[in-house]
C-alpha cells in the first residue's frame, strides 16, 4: 500500500470515497439494529420487560497494519459509523462518517475526518473530507518504461486538504452536482537527486491548488457495500485555476464503470473499466497515478504515472461459511503521455487472490486482504469493503 501526496487524501477516502476500515482479531463491529425483545411475564405480578429501542446504525473500530517499500511499516487507525440519517427514509442508502489516523516508521503520518451522506428519500447525497498530514515516499518520475530500471527520488510532502461534493438526483438514479477542493502543499527532496532523477519544479515546492468541478453519477446498485447486481458510472472534472487561488491552471478528468452480475446466492462477477486524463500543465502530484484506488492491485502507487491512464479488471467473488469469502482478480492497464502513445509492450497486467471476512452482516461490509502480482513485483493490500 504505497502513498504519495494524493494518498494523503486516500487516508481520508478510506472512509469517504471508498468505505470504512477494519481489522479482524482486534475488530469491534457493533450491530446497532437489534430486534426488540417481546415483553415477558414470569407471573401475574411480574413487571413486563421493556422492548429494546432499535438503534440507528453500526459502529466499526479499525486498526490496519501498513507495510510498503514506499512509506515503510506502520498502522492506520479508524473509527467509522454506518447509519440512516432518517430512520423512516427507506429509499436512501446507508450513510457513513469516520475519523482516521495513520503513521509509519519513515515519518509518514496524517489524520482526518469525512463522510458520505444520503438524505431526503435519496434525492440528495454529499461527500466531504478534511485531512492534514506528511508523506515521505519514493517518486519514480513521469513516464517510466516498465522494462527499464526505475530511478527513484525520496520526496517529503506535507499538506492540508479539504474536499466537498453535493449532488442531486434528477431521476433514474442519475446524480449531478458541483464539487470543490482546496489543498496547501509543501514538497522537498530528501538528499541528493541521483542522475536522471526527478527534480521538483520551483512552483511546486510551496503550492496551493483550488478547484471547482462537477460529477455525474449513475448508480443502480442502491448504494450497497456489497453490490450483487447493477452498475455504477462516474465522471468527474476538476478545474484548477489561478483565479481561484491556485499556483497553476490545469484540469483533471476521471471516469469509471463498475458492473456486477450475480452468479447465484454466493457468487458474484464484478468488472471495472476506468480512465484518467490531465492537462499538460498538471503538477506531478496530480498526474494519473497507477496502482491506487485498486487500479490495479499488484503495483506500488507512484511507480507509474503520466497524463493518460486506463485500467480494466474482472473479479470473481465467492462467499464461504463462517463469514469468510475468497476472490480472484485479473486485469491490465497502462500509462502514457497521450492517447496515441499507448503501446502493447508497455502495458501493465496484474492478477491476484484475496480473502474476505464479513465484519457487519447487516450491511455486508467485508474486511479484505488482497495479494496482487504485477509486472514489477507484488503488493499486499488491506482495507474494508470491496476494491470496487
Brief digest:
The chain is mostly beta strands. The protein is 3% helix and 54% strand.
Mean pLDDT: 84
Structural class: mainly beta
Kindly state the number of beta strands: 19
CATH topology: the name is: Porin
Major sheet description: 17 strands, antiparallel
Quote the distance from N terminus to C terminus.
16 Å
What Rg is obtained from the alpha carbons, in whole angstroms? 22 Å
Number of helices: 1
What is the number of domains?
A: 1
Q: Quickly name the level 1 CATH class.
A: Mainly Beta
CATH superfamily: membrane protein fhac: a member of the omp85/tpsb transporter family
How would you describe this protein?
- Helices cover 3% and strands 54% of the residues.
- Residues 1-44 have low confidence and may be disordered.
- The protein contains 1 helix and 19 strands.
- By secondary structure, the protein is mainly beta.
List the helices and strands and how they pair.
Layout: H1 6-18, E1 28-31, E2 57-68, E3 72-83, E4 95-104, E5 109-119, E6 124-139, E7 153-169, E8 174-189, E9 206-219, E10 230-240, E11 250-264, E12 267-278, E13 288-289, E14 305-306, E15 308-319, E16 324-336, E17 348-360, E18 365-374, E19 377-384
Amino acid at each position: 500500500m504505497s502513498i504519495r501526496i494524493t494518498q494523503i487524501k486516500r487516508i481520508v477516502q478510506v472512509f469517504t470515497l471508498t468505505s470504512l476500515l477494519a481489522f479482524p482479531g482486534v475488530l469491534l463491529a457493533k450491530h446497532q439494529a437489534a430486534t426488540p425483545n417481546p415483553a415477558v411475564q414470569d407471573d401475574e405480578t411480574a413487571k413486563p420487560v421493556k422492548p429494546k429501542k432499535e438503534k440507528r446504525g453500526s459502529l466499526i473500530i479499525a486498526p490496519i497494519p501498513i507495510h510498503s517499500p514506499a512509506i515503510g511499516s506502520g498502522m492506520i487507525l479508524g473509527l467509522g459509523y454506518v447509519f440512516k440519517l432518517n430512520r423512516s427514509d427507506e429509499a436512501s442508502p446507508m450513510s457513513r462518517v469516520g475519523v482516521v489516523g495513520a503513521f509509519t516508521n519513515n515519518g509518514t503520518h496524517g489524520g482526518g475526518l469525512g463522510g458520505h451522506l444520503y438524505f431526503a428519500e435519496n434525492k440528495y447525497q454529499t461527500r466531504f473530507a478534511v485531512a492534514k498530514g506528511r508523506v515521505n515516499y519514493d517518486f519514480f518520475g513521469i513516464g517510466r518504461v516498465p522494462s527499464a530500471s526505475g530511478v527513484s527520488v525520496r520526496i517529503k510532502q506535507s499538506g492540508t486538504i479539504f474536499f466537498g461534493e453535493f449532488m442531486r438526483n434528477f431521476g433514474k438514479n442519475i446524480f449531478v452536482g458541483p464539487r470543490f477542493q482546496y489543498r496547501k502543499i509543501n514538497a522537498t527532496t530528501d538528499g541528493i537527486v541521483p542522475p536522471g532523477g526527478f527534480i521538483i519544479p520551483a512552483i511546486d515546492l510551496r503550492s496551493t491548488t483550488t478547484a471547482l468541478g462537477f460529477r455525474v453519477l449513475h448508480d443502480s446498485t442502491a448504494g450497497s457495500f456489497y453490490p450483487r447486481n447493477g452498475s455504477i458510472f462516474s465522471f468527474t472534472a476538476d478545474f484548477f485555476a489561478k483565479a481561484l487561488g491556485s499556483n497553476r491552471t490545469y484540469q483533471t478528468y476521471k471516469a469509471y464503470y463498475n458492473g456486477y452480475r450475480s452468479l447465484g446466492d454466493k457468487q458474484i462477477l464484478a468488472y471495472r473499466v476506468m480512465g484518467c486524463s490531465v492537462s499538460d500543465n498538471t503538477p506531478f502530484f496530480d498526474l494519473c497515478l497507477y496502482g491506487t484506488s485498486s487500479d490495479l492491485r499488484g503495483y506500488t502507487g507512484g511507480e507509474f504515472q503520466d497524463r493518460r491512464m486506463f485500467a480494466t479488471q474482472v473479479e470473481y467473488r465467492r462467499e464461504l461459511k463462517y463469514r469468510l469469502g475468497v476472490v480472484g482478480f485479473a486485469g491490465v492497464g497502462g500509462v502514457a503521455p497521450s492517447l496515441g502513445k499507448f503501446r502493447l509492450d508497455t502495458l501493465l497486467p496484474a492478477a491476484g487472490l484475496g480473502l474476505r471476512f464479513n465484519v457487519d452482516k447487516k450491511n455486508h461490509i467485508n474486511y479484505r486482504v488482497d495479494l496482487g502480482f504485477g509486472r514489477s513485483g507484488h503488493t499486499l493490500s488491506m482495507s474494508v469493503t470491496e476494491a470496487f
